[in-house]
Amino acid sequence: MTDSAAEPSREPFTADDERWMRRALELAAHARDACGEVPVGAVLVTAGEAIGEGWNHNISLNDPSAHAEILALRAAGQKLGNYRFPGSTLYATLEPCAMCAMALVHARVARVVYAAADPKTGAAGSVFDTLVSDRHNHRIAVDSGLFAAESAALLREFFRNRR
Questions:
Q1: pLDDT for 160 beyond 50
Q2: In this predicted model, what pLDDT tens digit does every residue of 72-107 receive, in sequence order?
Q3: Model confidence over 120-137: pLDDT tens digits?
């Protein structure tokens, strides 16, 4: 585990970072409210424009791969007619899992900003260091902790209400 990936970033976040993470939080709330899904949202941004958005759809689509990050990548691919997104940043309300992390590596995403860490399955420093591994031919810059309390509260409330 690397300290920089598991702990909140030491660099200040920009107004754009805050804007896009707030959008990801809106998508997470939509997943919870409209779909009854685990509240996770993701936005893929290039040159100041959202090119893909997603929220968890595992339950409603009966699809274990329908994570917010994967759906944001799929939407971006459809929009741009490409499967690679160099120079892009993914904003996610929860630390990506191993599946999502590898999809982000394959998509050549430049940076991931996530809110809450996932101490059970996180692949951006909490459990695995997939995004920064020197075993891959592409590594992704990781910044974490932006609106972590808000994201964690959404998740805690969701699971508390399901018990």
A1: yes
A2: 999 999 999 999 999 999 999 999 999 999 999 999
A3: 999 999 999 999 999 998
Asked if 126 contacts 6 with a C-beta cutoff of 8 angstroms, the reply is yes
Q: Do 75 and 53 meet the contact criterion of CB atoms below 8 Å apart? A: yes
Residues 6 or more apart whose CB falls under 8 angstroms from that of 125 comprise 1, 2, 4, 5, 6, 95, 117, 131, 132, 142, 144
Residues paired with 129 in a beta bridge: 124
**DSSP E strand stretches across the chain:** 41-46, 49-55, 89-94, 111-116, 141-144
On whether the CB atoms of residues 144 and 114 are closer than 8 A, the answer is yes
Rounded Cα–Cα distance for residues 127 and 41 (Å): 20
- Residue 7 DSSP symbol: S
Give catalytic residue positions: 69
Structure tokens at 108: 């050549």
